[in-house]
Amino acid sequence: MIALGFFDGVHQGHQHVIARARQLAHERHLPLAVMTFNRHVSRVFNTSRQTDFRYLNTISQKLALLAQNQVDTTYVVDFDRDFAGIAPEKFVRDYLMALNADVVVGGFDYTFGRGGQATIADMPRYNHDAFDVVVVSELAQDQQKIGSTQIRRLIKFGHIEQANELLGHQYALAGQLVQSRQDEPLQFRPASRLQQLPPQGTYDCQLTVGTMELTGKLSVNRRGLSVTIADLKASRMVLSTGSQTVELGLLKRRVARSQQVTSAQVIAI
């Protein structure tokens, strides 16, 4: 059983596809695998979106979220120019039939082959009846498709609670906590410069540092990102071990009472 998709964010729409694949895997007594990619197409080709595109997850975060959705195995394909140029039949033969797939599951908008010329509904034309193909319909909210592009935009403009609702989990930044000076807040260094950051402001967040779960605030400004941990004892414990790998789960954006910011004003930031 193989579910196909880029799965950036592993949002509720993706979970909908994976849940269908998981159900079929259970019914047919098959292990559940996912095939995803290490790059987005806009990062491979010189498109107008190339400089603006940001990921919702690092690869490590994506793998962890897929595992939380009871995926047994994840295949991460190197999406480069050569892969992007393969014919649809070659993708089916060399990547799906080669894995002896019994069933392939994909969302209604999944495409493959050179230029995305084939859709999941076209796949039976290329597989010579080697496996079953299941197409999963879209998952929508308020008559709008739940998609990664929509979620990126929400985060970009600071609408964290709305983004989390569509994700079905907290939006989390991966990185390290470092203290440059003892009298200054902890600095947060993102693991990837390509992960989507929220706009300037202050955000309530939940920090995962090793086995510790802490609450704090993330400040985003022109100088960078800094973190204040509410529990001073825990903060000292984090500092005593040097730089720490951490995930910052964003909860909501704080707005000063003196600033009655409207949605339009937030978007203008």
Automatic annotation (TrEMBL):
Organism: Lactiplantibacillus xiangfangensis
EC number: 2.7.7.2
Keyword ATP-binding tagged: yes
Catalytic activity: FMN + ATP + H(+) = FAD + diphosphate
UniProt name for this protein: FAD synthase
CDD domains membership: FAD_synthetase_N
Any Pfam family: FAD_syn
GO biological process: FAD biosynthetic process; FMN biosynthetic process; riboflavin biosynthetic process
GO molecular function: ATP binding; FMN adenylyltransferase activity; riboflavin kinase activity
Keyword Disulfide bond: no
Domain FAD synthetase: from-to ranges: 2-149
Classification via InterPro entries: FAD_synthase, Riboflavin_kinase, Rossmann-like_a/b/a_fold
